[in-house]
TrEMBL record, chains A, B:
GO MF annotation terms: DNA-binding transcription factor activity
Any single Pfam family the record assigns to this protein: Rrf2
Name recorded for this polypeptide: Rrf2 family transcriptional regulator
Highest taxon listed in the record's lineage: Bacteria
Lineage: Bacteria, Pseudomonadati, Pseudomonadota, Alphaproteobacteria, Hyphomicrobiales
InterPro entries listed in its UniProt record: TR_Rrf2-type_CS, Tscrpt_reg_Rrf2, WH-like_DNA-bd_sf, WH_DNA-bd_sf
One Gene Ontology CC term in the entry: cytosol
Amino acid sequence: MILKSQVEWALHCCAILSGLPEGRYLSTKALAELHGLPKEYLSKALQSLSQAGLVHTTLGPSGGYRLAKAANELSFLDVVEAVEGSGRTFVCQNIRANNPCRPKGYCESGPCAIARIMWEADEAWRAALRKVTFADLGKILHQEISPEIWSGTFDWVLKRAG
Amino acid sequence: MILKSQVEWALHCCAILSGLPEGRYLSTKALAELHGLPKEYLSKALQSLSQAGLVHTTLGPSGGYRLAKAANELSFLDVVEAVEGSGRTFVCQNIRANNPCRPKGYCESGPCAIARIMWEADEAWRAALRKVTFADLGKILHQEISPEIWSGTFDWVLKRAG
DNA sequence: CGAATTACGGATACATAATGTCCCTATTCG
DNA sequence: CGAATAGGGACATTATGTATCCGTAATTCG
């Protein structure tokens, strides 16, 4: 059970977008170049973000993406679910119903206990991702990235931001 | 990102095995029949449990599986990891290293902040599964399964347990 | 002892999903 | 108008999950 690499890409892209000045946009091409990713395929991940309403887009030259809301209101969970979907990691196929000891037509009282426990773990995972925003990430990155790379990347991005 | 159905199977099988009297064994055939699963394929899941040391096996007629430790010492996480592996759900491909603004040969100070956050969520998921044992599950099931099905299944299993 | 039954592991086939590429369209900027 | 962009559909490739089959060694029972 491994998350798609598009999730990683989307997170890194949002990290960059969260540092973009108000009203500026950054293109797929620039984001792909910055991360060494295939432009066409990265585009699919960005489209997922767009469809989820997490980013705003413009067309034409100088077009691209920006966050649709403030960085402190965009959580990791938002991005992960936009790309990966919001389904559960555990799907209950209700195999208890195959128990030959059951009376025919027996009706379940509710979801399987095993599934409920697995879903609680899923929810713990979601809760952990929900509480971290891209404002939080920005602070962490600002602390641990060397100042030259930080400002160098910032300039690189600004030069390409429409 | 969805867990293998083998995880569900293994959990249900351990639930049954945890109700087995001391020293008795239950075969793949019986477990498959009880859950309506393909015997040959379920066998792979049970082998994973065996390799992880979670169950004990015997060969020959009247052979099969039993738990290798007490139900209150076997956690959901044990079973999930035995089948699904203990790797993280988020794999960091370190795409930050592709940043063209970096000096050549630049050496990372540590794992990517994004990866660390994702791994913390993974750990929250694991922690939730680690704290639930099959003794806990047994109590829950005993409360919510109708007495006829409970004892009917118990008899069915005992009749086939070697 | 011999036959039946079992766990175990390897080989193989198939379906589904992830990954990646290509091309066309509508829109927007200069 | 021409260039650059997001968006989306079609397709190829690869990896993974699902499932089946068969051979081997060990064990039980008659």
